[in-house]
Amino acid sequence: MNSISELEQLRKSILQFRDQRNWQQFHNPKDLALSLSLEASELLELFQWKTSEEAVEKNLDKMKEELADVLIYAILFANETDLDLVKIINNKLQKNNEKYPIEKFAGKNTKYNEI
């Protein structure tokens, strides 16, 4: 199975889960964006007052759950706004490739406007 069909199967599974519970009525773009942000914050909270290494060692299982929630909401948001995730990610990667050329940014953590 290729990654595109795996992504499509994930989308279908998420929609099936949602539809079996009659939750689509709550899944408008604004509320999905809010939920996406909240779940990302829950992932971030796992790092509070810890080094990256400590946080991962202590919270990896919870991180998996929070990351899954983030991705589920991202997929639901894309579905509700009729966005093709593969296409928009590839477009963004192309823009980033132009914005951050290898010869200027390899091994650097500066933004494009700081160079």
TrEMBL record:
CDD domains: NTP-PPase_RS21-C6_like. InterPro entries: dCTP_Pyrophosphatase (IPR052555), DCTPP (IPR025984). Pfam families: MazG-like. This is Nucleotide pyrophosphohydrolase. The lineage of its organism: Bacteria, Bacillati, Bacillota, Bacilli, Bacillales.
